[in-house]
Write a structure and sequence with these properties.
Layout (H helix, E strand, L loop, with lengths): L1 E10 L5 H12 L3 E6 L5 E7 L2 H13 L6 E9 L8 E3 L2
Parallel strand pairs: 2-5
Antiparallel strand pairs: 1-3, 1-4, 2-3
Family: Belongs to the acylphosphatase family.
GO molecular function: acylphosphatase activity
Keywords: Hydrolase
Length: about 90
């Protein structure tokens, strides 16, 4: 199981970014986790999958910005250790 934590900076709040990440996870399939806004204007994502190819595609698409009005200026991606998720959800 590959698990990563991402922190996205840029125009990522108020542009449907979290919904875009959620939709992307469902579209690619096999990706579970959480996405939420941070008080500093960034967005955090915890994601896991058994497929390295799916994770690579997920990260690549997030870097591009998953919605037309989002713009990711920096994406920090680190390997992480967290409790497993059975679905993908938007958290508050």
């Amino acid at each position: 199981m590959q698990k990563v934590k991402m922190i996205a900076q840029g125009r990522v709040q108020g542009v449907g970014f979290r919904w875009g990440v959620y939709s992307l996870a469902l579209e690619i399939g096999g990706i579970t986790g959480r996405v939420w806004n941070n008080e500093d204007g960034t967005v955090s994502i915890l994601a896991q999958t058994d497929s390295p190819a799916s994770m690579a595609k997920f990260i690549q698409e997030i870097r591009k910005g998953p919605t037309p009005f989002s713009k990711v200026s920096y994406l920090d991606v680190t390997m992480a250790n967290f409790d497993s998720f059975s679905d993908f959800k938007i958290s508050n």
